[in-house]
Sequence to fold (230 residues):
Amino acid sequence: MNIIWLGHGSFRIEIEDQVLLIDPWLSGNPMLDDEYHAPALEGVTQILITHGHFDHTQDLAMVAEKTSAPVAGMVELMGYFENKGVKNTIGFNKGGTITCGKVAVTMVPASHSSSVNGEAGPIYMGAEIGFMIAGEGHVIYVSGDTGIMADMEWMGDYHKPDIGILSAGGHYTMDMAQAAYASKKYFDFKTVIPGHYKTFPALEQSAQVLIDGLPSVNVVEPEVMKPILI
Fold:
């Protein structure tokens, strides 16, 4: 399995027979140089979207067209993009599971907000969510944009993820200290990869607090487009 950070909250996960693209933000992403756009999209088989904010969906129509990959996410959000011309959408909801080849993807709660820009202001798009992704004998918790929430207790107990991809930049999501707290209290991760940080000055620029807070966990501070082999 390879987990590849595309900067900000965007990840590429090569697992089993699938290449999953999580919240692809390419154009305007200050962390992803133009030369990496094509490699980021190569061979993508499934696109997964956690919520509607621009830094997670701005390039969705373009990416879906270029890859011809199906797009899955919250049912209201998928309905919106289907009406905008995005083909092959899969709308589901919290607790639901879809199968992508040999990989199972279950939608789980997050605590954030979800909207797209409309002419009269934000248009709210159902609920913000995360994913539990099962394959190759692992379960990956992709938190999406979230703060700490009590739901993490049952999510950790029921799904037992051993890998956490956690939004941890602060300001809009958990910060590094909160991500460390949640990891210790609710999960038994073997590997943690932070995301949604470094992009803007308002966000945390280092994962050192997370590393220090989880001394028994392999905390990997990702580098853009450098595969993390699990």
